[in-house]
Amino acid sequence: MTEQIWFEDFIPGTVLESAPRTITLSDIDRYADLTGERHPVHMDDDFARAAGFRGRIAHGLFALALVEGLKAEMGGFDRSVIASLGWDKVRFTAPLEPGDVVHLKLELVEKRPSSRPGRGVATERGSLVKSDGTVVVSGDHVIILLNRPAQPPAG
């Protein structure tokens, strides 16, 4: 688990990496069940092969969601991030296939104080990376990050 990263601890240029995760057909099926997105490239091996893939591939937005899920599993932002302001420059650059082992590479890009006291606005660049180094999806995520809470008085 990563130590909590508050606004003061967010150092641009820092790169964090998550534990690996193996993608399964069940992951793809569960994502399709949750979202209703059942395009045949995700659900039909023959269709996916005819489209030029080795078989079914995961949804692009599932890959992007994994960026957030793997970040959450790292634990560094679970008490300090209070809002997402959006994603910029999202690119889907390679298919995500069952059996792929992926991890998150999270680069802390920039930060600035917010107009509201006690918080700031920060940008993190998340990349979902296969074990061979291929980037599946990447994008810049703008978040609201709290300042470190005041220490309670001693005594």
Question: What can you tell me about this protein's structure?
Answer:
It is a single chain. This protein has helices spanning 25-35, 40-43, 45-50, 60-74; strands at 15-17, 21-22, 81-92, 101-113, 119-130, 135-146. By secondary structure, the chain is an alpha+beta fold. Strands 1, 2, 3, 4, 5 and 6 form a six-stranded antiparallel β-sheet that branches. The model has no long low-confidence stretch (mean pLDDT 96).
Strand composition percent? 25-35%
In angstroms, what separates the terminal alpha carbons? 30 Å
> Structural class of the helix and strand makeup?
alpha+beta
What does the radius of gyration come to? Answer: 18 Å
Number of strands: 6
Short description:
The chain is built from four helices and six strands, in the order ββααααββββ. It is α+β, with helices and mostly antiparallel strands.
Give the tags.
alpha+beta, 4 helices, about 160 residues, elongated
Give me the secondary-structure topology.
Elements: E1 15-17, E2 21-22, H1 25-35, H2 40-43, H3 45-50, H4 60-74, E3 81-92, E4 101-113, E5 119-130, E6 135-146
Antiparallel strand pairs: 1-4, 2-4, 3-6, 4-5, 5-6
